[in-house]
Amino acid sequence: MDVLLHTCCAPCTIGPYERLVAEGHRVTGLFYNPNIHPFVEFRRRLKAMKVLQERVPIPVLYDEEYGLHDYLDAVDWRSPLRCEQCYRQRLAQAAHVAREQGFVAVTTTLLASTYQQHEAVARIGREEAERQGIEFLYRDWRPLAEPNHERAAAMRLYLQSYCGCVFSEWERFRDTERHVYRGPGPLAAPEDA
């Protein structure tokens, strides 16, 4: 079966791609992630996907536009459903591209992440595929999460430290000083003052 695999990032793509190919599917990736911020992070993840593609012969369709405005238009940051709105934005586009390009089914590497709301991803994926008249190929790839990351590290792929959106970045780093300058800085008061 011809399957479009929405790819959230290079590390999460490795295992699902290989499993689908082993099942006999013809798989093409789709990198569409307007949620990834800031711009430098978006470029890192896009580059990592291209590096993976050099090492694993996966055909990939790329949307290389930095989607800040589209993402902010689609997601209400105040809503407890913010993540579901983000999933819907990406999975609706993936299902649309799949139908337009003649794929029989669509799926997503979001199903490989232990950090995503798995049931919501599966539900929204089914809804969006049904809207487009194609199949949503559900697989629980969460057991592949750790092996995916180990293989990505061995391939020297960029490994991100947060989901991708500016809100997840803030949630990830707000309670840590690990990435904050620790010195006194130029505005520190002199010790003898």
In short:
This protein is of the alpha/beta class and 193 residues long.
Would you give an account of this structure?
The protein is an alpha/beta fold. The chain has one domain (2-169): HUPs (Rossmann fold), CATH 3.40.50. It is 46% helix and 10% strand. The chain contains seven helices and five strands, in the order βαβαβααβαβαα. It has helices spanning 10-22, 39-55, 68-74, 82-100, 118-132, 145-154, 166-173, and strands at 2-6, 26-31, 60-62, 105-108, 135-136. It has a five-stranded parallel beta sheet, sandwiched between helices. Helix 1 links the parallel strand 1 (2-6) and strand 2 (26-31). The longest helix has 19 residues, at 82-100. Residues 185-190 have low confidence and may be disordered.
Helical amount among residues, as a percent range? 40-55%
How many discrete structural domains?
A: 1
In total, how many beta strands? 5
The chain-level mean pLDDT equals: 89
Superfamily (CATH H level) name:
HUPs
Layout of strands and helices, then pairs:
Blueprint: E1 2-6, H1 10-22, E2 26-31, H2 39-55, E3 60-62, H3 68-74, H4 82-100, E4 105-108, H5 118-132, E5 135-136, H6 145-154, H7 166-173
Parallel strand pairs: 1-2, 1-4, 2-3, 4-5
Give the tags.
193 residues; alpha/beta; Rossmann fold; 7 helices; 10% strand
